[in-house]
Predict the structure.
Amino acid sequence: MEEKNAHSQGFGYRFIGILVAVSLISAIIGGVISAYITPNVRSSVPEATPSDRQIHPADGQKQVIKAGDLVSPATAVANRLKPSVVNISVNQGPRDAIHSGLVGGVGSGVIYRDDGYIITNNHVISGAREVFVTIGTDEIKARLVAADPETDLAVLKVDKKGLNAAEFGSTKSLQVGEPAIAIGSPFGFEYTVTSGIISALNRTVTIPDEETGGNITFTNLIQTDAAINPGSSGGVLSDATGKVIGINTLIISSSGAYEGVGFAIPVETVRSVADQLIEKGKASHPYMGIYGRDARDIVVADSSAPIKKGAVIVEVVPGSPATKAGLRKEDIITAVDNTSIEDMDDLIAEVRQREVGDSVKITYFRNGKEHKVDLTLTEKPRQ
């Protein structure tokens, strides 16, 4: 179990449109993937002005672009990252007892290590019987190393060495408005490059979890207007220097296709989870042990509570850190350490920023009175 929203009305009221995990499922492997694609496409990354530029290809050698060459950042990034971005196709078994063929899907991935480790999204490979990775012109069968539904990340392994691993950057100094370049396989079109900007940082997005029937929340996401479409899942989001800053994973759309609001998992999360999946076959996450709702969305039995914001506990998991700390159903959590909590998304985001074993001070209201308690986060149990 996890600390997640328990909105009885789902998540639709939070967003205009629908949230789409951007892998692409085709009806039958080998069939035609059709989609309506808007013809009006433009780049929001301006062309480079005439000046000397130093571009650093994947081989580490410096390539000096002379004044007048007019190579855009998107072109330089595409040249640098193309050898590191892969196409992923999956077989998910027979379509049904009547129809022939296999149900399959298409997604993207990025080479993490030159000895064959590849990062993609969990939802790209979830339920797959077979996974194939296209590197350049070679299609290679891959095996699943491990996956982490909590962050929607997975690591694959192919039996090939000397691959062109991407260079991973950082989001620490990333600013809204900076160029962003997305590379992947939207609608199965390999090595598609789109460009835009960083629209926002540290976004929290909650979507339905089809496996559990509840909700799953992603935190610290990078928002971009670089075009991301079905099939782009697992592809890279790069800065203007060609360093990977995120893995593309979600879009918000009323049509199921690009409408200018896409999300990527930040590179710090990607590297941490990928390393854990490779080293120990799982990723550890801090755990509090409650289910909750936004205070503003429900009427609490304690109508005298002088608080309208916060996270209301609707269930405490027996034996969890929350139980041991003495938290109860209908307590309203309003702060973690010195950070105010306005809703469940805030609470989830704060817990996710901690490490297993960290102690946090929880501020909460019960029967109209404020209380504080120390709580030690443990490792989230595997479901």
User: Anything to note?
Assistant: Confidence is low (pLDDT under 50) at residues 4-18, 25-68, 95-102.
